[in-house]
Amino acid sequence: MDNTHLQNLFPVVKEKLSLSNEERKQFIFEDKWITYPLAKEILSHLDFLLNHPKKSRMPCMLLVGETNNGKTSIINKFIKTHPPYEAEEVTITPVLSVVAPETATITDLFSKILLRLGAPYRNGDKINKKRELIEHYFNICEIKMLIVDEIHNILVGPVSKQKAFMNALKNLSTELQIPIVIVGIADALHATNTDSKINNRFKPIALKKWLFDRDFLSLLASIEKTLPLKKASNLASTKELAYYIHDYSEGYIGEIVDLINTSVKYSIDNNIEKIDLQCLKKCKFVKPSNRKHFDDIKTL
Ligand SMILES: Nc1ncnc2c1ncn2[C@@H]1O[C@H](COP(=O)(O)OP(=O)(O)OP(=O)(O)O)[C@@H](O)[C@H]1O
Ligand SMILES: [Mg+2]
After folding, report:
1. Ligand 1 close to Cβ of residue 48 (< 6 A)
2. Cβ distance 170 to 119 under 8 Å?
3. CB 222 within 8 A of CB 229
4. Is-contact 204 191, C-beta < 8 A?
5. Domains of the chain: which residue ranges?
6. Is the pLDDT of residue 238 over 90?
7. pLDDT tens-digit profile of 20-65?
8. In this predicted model, what pLDDT tens digit does every residue of 91-101 receive, in sequence order?
9. % of the chain surpassing 70 pLDDT
């Protein structure tokens, strides 16, 4: 085995090289965190919000980006670095995250929050009762930030309903004096643009598709460090591989990771032990935009 290649792998990945093919394939599809400059910036902004001194007009944020492009992964990474912990009969929960209700009603959002907190409530409780419970539990659990993912769910309702939902979120931030972070695809901008007060409060940060640039190549280099393959693929420095991955993933990080993982599986199954053009072409990965065309969908 090439020594320089081994040195490039993360220690935990190096250990996996001695596992069976099946175990290595299992490892490939486990969730991993790969860091990149924009994710670092967003995580650091989330830290800034989390530690923001309490005031009535707390700054909030909208994390907006294409689908399958790493928004929820960043949120999960942030929660992992600020996990809940037990203290004297309560679970201190620095960050609480929920998914926006498809009904676009604030009472359903409150129910979701209370359910996540394990608080006693009934769906039919009046909204004020739910709000009081939320205030109570946020205080005792010392919740310093609320995250609402998939905020575009609320766009199903009429604009007046979306406006009411966003206003209620803004008011909740004011009452609890905590930052609220909402996360969604570009359409979510419609939700924050219903009103200039909302728009001012929820400052948008965009997670755009990956361009073919230096950051993309360094992402490929970072991903390669996580692959339990015995030979170097040199994804970042082999132009034809990097171009192929960029073209076929169409710049979405979820697709980049998926294409690479699928070709690693092909590589292990065929005893190639690195990703080459053959693996990328033969692993039956279909470009996201071609998945709508029956003729482009591969058989298993
Ligand atoms: N930093 C990362 N490290 C490793 N894998 C990642 C990272 N970010 C994203 N991924 C991969 O991309 C996939 C999609 O990411 P994620 O679910 O975060 O996207 P999303 O923007 O929230 O999508 P959606 O809008 O559909 O909810 C993940 O399941 C994971 O495989
Ligand atoms: Mg998501």
Report:
1. no
2. no
3. no
4. no
5. 3-32+226-288, 37-207
6. yes
7. 999 999 999 999 999 999 999 999 999 999 999 999 899 999 999 9
8. 999 999 999 99
9. 98
Give the pLDDT confidence of 212-232 residue by residue, as tens digits: 999 999 999 999 999 999 999
Tell whether ligand 1 has an atom less than 6 A from the beta carbon of residue 32: yes
Residues 6+ apart with CB under 8 A from 221: 235, 236
Predicted local confidence at residue 187, as pLDDT: 86
Q: CATH assignment of 37-207?
A: 3.40.50.300
Q: Which ligand is nearest to the CA of 260?
A: 1
Task: Choose among 24, 29, 21: nearest CA to 271.
Answer: 21
**Above pLDDT 90, what percent of the chain?**
81
- Give the ligand with the smallest distance to the CA of 69: 1
Question: Dmax over Cα atoms in the chain, in whole Å?
Answer: 66
Q: Given a cut of 80, is residue 127 above it in pLDDT? A: yes
Mean pLDDT of the chain: 94
Q: Ligand 1, atom 16: nearest CA belongs to which residue?
A: 70
Please state the atom number of ligand 1 nearest to the C-alpha of residue 65: 21
Collapsing DSSP to helix, strand or coil, 149 comes out as strand
**Residue bearing the CA closest to ligand 1, atom 9:** 70
43 C-alpha to ligand 1 centroid (Å)? 15
**CB proximity list for 92: less than 8 A, separation 6 or greater:** 84, 85, 86, 141, 142
Q: Distance, CA 77 to ligand 2 centroid (Å)? A: 13
Torsion over CA: 260, 42, 186, 242 (sign): negative
Q: Which of 33, 40, 72 to mutate to test the pocket of ligand 1 (most atoms within 8 A of CB)?
A: 72
**Closest atom of ligand 1 to CA, residue 149:** 27
β-pairing verdict for 145-149 and 180-184: parallel
| Ligand 1 centroid – CA 120 distance (Å) | 33
The confidence score (pLDDT) of residue 4 equals 85
